[in-house]
UniProtKB/TrEMBL annotation:
Protein name: Speckle-type POZ protein
Alphabetical list of Gene3D superfamilies matching this protein: 1.25.40.420, Potassium Channel Kv1.1, Chain A
Regions crossing the membrane: 229-251
Boundaries of every BTB domain copy: 173-236
Family annotation (InterPro entries): BTB/POZ_dom, SKP1/BTB/POZ_sf
Sorted UniProt keywords: Membrane, Transmembrane, Transmembrane helix
Name of the encoding gene: spop_34
Keyword flag Transmembrane helix: yes
Length: 344
């Protein structure tokens, strides 16, 4: 390519859906993408690492002609209801033979984590493509090692995911998780490595260790399968808020810390007036951070009646009246503090 090439991206990003799923490229395991954006041989792809996240994890800028080293630079903006919720500059080298650059979106740049809601978002970017004339320094060796390490982990996750299915597993299961009428095959080594609770269960002379069966109560089969799959592949699929809450409770019960954090992050990103009482209720039981987030969300609402009219709030008042009183007390205290600030 000779000379400079510029183009502007201005497109709507829909919510990830099953028909958008990537299933053939191992380097994008568990990701979703948006196609149909073509700019004179250049295209844009949005990737999600797991479906419950409303914001893409990264943006890929791809080319059809792979000859020549180029420098890609520009600025991208993610908007929701005409409000910019993320702005990020980028400057990367595209080497000869390479078909794309990957721009990781930095969640720290998000201007709000409570109000941007679900897609659709609007993606805008100004992209400039220049011939590489040494304007970028060589990629540091440590960065090359990190990229190689990341790819290896994705391959490892894919291999481990095959162990969850008897049809694809090359290692027979040595334990079964009984949940209602379902029996989920698993491997003690994997469960024990991912959960201290399972580790203790299999290390001691307990019935579960001797009979190679574990009875699982208070967790739905769907949630249990999701947790087991995460233990193997470190991936969760698209879950409703209700299922994510159930998965959070399961992750807390079996002390799967990373899964617990993923669930909390997903719930925060999907909070609404209708479900915040559910987040508060579950947070009160298993996550101080989620409870605090839900409390702040309620206190920031201009009209508390919007919450009080929901079925989730009415249920909370009946099951945990003391928690409902705590919310009302916090709302009054928050309003008093705001009034004092206005007077000063």
């Amino acid at each position: 390519m000779s000379g400079n090439n510029r183009f502007t991206i201005d497109c709507q990003i829909p919510e990830p859906s099953e028909h958008m799923k990537i299933s053939t490229n191992i380097s994008q395991l568990g990701s979703y993408y948006l196609t149909g954006l073509d700019y004179n041989g250049w295209s844009v792809v949005c990737l999600w690492s797991y479906e419950s996240s409303p914001v893409p994890e990264s943006i890929e800028i791809r080319r059809k002609i792979v000859v020549g080293e180029l420098v890609i630079e520009g600025k991208l903006t993610l908007l929701r209801n005409d409000e910019a919720i993320l702005e990020q500059n980028f400057l990367q080298r595209m080497r000869s033979g390479s078909t794309f650059i990957d721009i990781k979106l930095n969640n720290a740049n998000l201007r709000s984590r409570t109000s941007f809601g679900r897609p659709p978002f609007l993606l805008k970017a100004h992209v400039e493509i220049l011939p590489d004339q040494g304007t970028l320094p060589p990629m540091p060796p440590i960065y090359r090692k990190m990229k190689k390490h990341s790819t290896c982990l994705l391959h490892l996750a894919s291999d481990f995911a095959q162990l969850t299915s008897p049809e694809t597993s090359c290692v027979p299961a040595d334990v079964h998780l009984k949940c209602g009428s379902a029996s989920i095959p698993a491997h003690k080594a994997i469960l024990g490595a991912r959960s201290p609770v399972f580790a203790a269960m299999f290390a001691n002379p307990m019935r579960e260790s001797e009979e190679n069966e574990v009875d699982i109560a208070d967790i739905s089969v769907f949630v249990l399968r999701a947790m087991v799959y995460y233990m193997y592949a470190a991936v969760i699929g698209k879950l409703s808020v209700s299922s994510t809450l159930g998965l959070l409770v399961a992750a807390d019960k079996y002390q799967v810390g990373r899964l617990k954090r993923i669930c909390c992050d997903s719930l925060k990103e999907n909070v609404s007036v209708e479900n915040v009482s559910m987040l508060l209720d579950t947070g009160d039981a298993v996550s101080k951070d989620l409870k605090s987030f839900a409390m702040d969300y309620i206190c920031d609402l201009p009209d508390l009646s919007a919450i009080q009219n929901t079925e989730a709030w009415k249920s909370l008042e009946k099951s945990k009246p003391s928690l409902a009183v705590e919310v009302l007390t916090s709302v009054l205290k928050s309003r008093d503090e705001k009034i004092k600030k206005l007077k000063t």
